[in-house]
Amino acid sequence: MIPTWRLRAAFARRLSGMYGAEVPAYTTLLEVAGEVNDEVARRDPDAGRLGALARVTAERHGAIRVGTPRELCQAAQIFAALGMRPVGFYDLRDATTSAVPVVSTAFRPVEPEELARNPFRVFTSLLTTADRRFFDAGLQTRLETFLERRTLFPPELLRLAERAERERGLEPDEAERLLTLAVAAFELSPEPVDRAWYTELARISAVAADIGGVTSTHINHLTPRVLDIDALYRRMADRGITMIDEIQGPPRWDGPDVLLRQTSFRALDEARTFREPDGSVTTGALRVRFGEVEARGIALSRAGRARYDALTTETDRRLAASGPGGPARQDVARALWEAGFPRSEHRLAAEGLGYFTYEPSPTRPRDRRRPPADLAGLLAQGWLTAHPIVYEDFLPRSAAGIFRSNLTGQGTRDATRTGTPYDEHRLSEAVGRPVHDPFEIYAAQQDASLRHALEALGADDALRTLCPS
């Protein structure tokens, strides 16, 4: 029996090989990321604090786009076979001024031990065909009819995926067949694209055209993890690869790395065949796939995330007030962070702004003193050691920013219309499975470790205060 995590690891490797063959610049991205990671690991003895080098080197996240709840539910079944659950709700429609009519979730492992084995994730977006800001009633009907006619995932793949989920693995022959079919489902199809239909959708949104203008889905990008994203950004540009204008997410600064920083090289022209209105087949090009890279930091609590959002909003306000020719975004953001965000992991933990696992400190006091009842005191007096929990999820604004940077046009939206309401509950209905709240996953991991550590210390007062349930 090939267990679930080995299926997931094999799928990630094969997908990476396939994508590298289809998008050669992705192979360059992997080479540069590997060089940077090796250099950081050699010079920084603490480089593995947010993940061992072996895990960081193997780490990937992919992205796909689907058109209907049925397709999303089927994708969820395939990822469930690999031990990946839907986590988080992301509404990209209002995260950018460009036309990006999708809501998203990310399929990933949720247990710490599974993440340590292989943390593969797939950011999966669903087209919001009923959103009147983008699609009128007539186009919605034609678009949904087109989507209902296509089959993204063959029945054999879905049957194998159901069995793999139920039995938590597959026999070798069936595992091989599952992996072969799954990778093929995410390859770029050679089938000609209906030029008139694709062009009609692209006038509204390049993302909508990439989802609903073709008869298949494909990996939109595949993302390695790097330990110094600023160094990678410079090095990719030195190799002649055009990067997007800026790194998305928190600024580079002297404090702790938190959440997620992302960038990418711009989408490249790829040869495609088109079916013309007269029935002839011609050759052209589309720009839909790009190479993203990410640097992951510490997961923030709800309070920490609120602090991050407030700093981002203030950065926007100051940039708007400065007008054209003003300071760079990174400079404005860095100054705000230095004034308004904890400068150390210790303060992040003590103020409850970040998520950590805790264990009794090997150098804790050995006299008869009672441990303090508050977390700040336990840390300051050396009773507990805090280890950061890596942020495993995404930022809607950053995702939308990279989507926007790689669009061929801004698209159109009718701002006078009201968008179709979407939330985590409605997305769960579309997926056919509960969408997990990432804050709850991190909090459960932190709380379990804190309770265990306090019990080991015999810190009854702290247990009653910090772990009341």
UniProtKB/TrEMBL annotation:
Its EC number is 1.13.11.93. GO terms for molecular function: dioxygenase activity. CDD domains: VOC_YdcJ_like (cd16348). Gene3D superfamilies: Uncharacterised protein PF07063, DUF1338. InterPro entries: HGLS, YdcJ_bac-like. Keywords: Dioxygenase, Iron, Oxidoreductase. It holds the Pfam family HGLS. Its cofactor is Fe(2+). Coiled coil: none annotated. PANTHER family: 2-OXOADIPATE DIOXYGENASE_DECARBOXYLASE (PTHR39479:SF2), PTHR39479. Belongs to the 2-oxoadipate dioxygenase/decarboxylase family. This is 2-oxoadipate dioxygenase/decarboxylase. It comes from Streptomyces rimosus subsp. rimosus (strain ATCC 10970 / DSM 40260 / JCM 4667 / NRRL 2234).
